[in-house]
Write a structure and sequence with these properties.
Length: 114
């Protein structure tokens, strides 16, 4: 491999690393939001009618996990057979290079059983 070829490979690896450094935090936040919702749905202390305490607990857990892209007011409650579906849909943005941004949209759901 020539020196020019080696430089090109290093540039491509650096670009891939930059993209990974920008995307991994977005997907980590998405994972945290999904795990918070699934934990809320598996806890027996929440009923489908207790929306205020669900929002408060959701907000506390977002704060603990340092999630800034989502707020407790983003939670939506929908009645489904057998319980209440809680869902959150959000979009987050991260700068990539100069004036280019990466935009990611996420939709997470869970069901609170009656």
């Amino acid at each position: 491999m020539t020196f020019a070829g080696l430089v090109m490979v290093l540039v491509l690896l650096a670009f891939a690393a930059l993209i990974a450094m920008r995307l991994v935090p977005l997907y980590m936040e998405s994972y945290y939001v999904g795990s918070i919702l699934s934990n809320l749905s598996s806890e027996a202390r929440f009923s489908a009618d207790d929306r205020r305490s669900v929002r408060e607990t959701f907000a506390r857990r977002l704060s603990i996990n340092d999630v800034d892209s989502v707020d407790a007011s983003d939670l939506e409650f929908t009645e489904v057979p057998g319980g209440t579906q809680i869902s959150v849909e959000y979009e987050t943005r991260s700068p990539l290079i100069a004036n280019l941004d990466v935009v990611a949209r996420f939709h997470k759901t869970a069901v609170l059983r009656n």
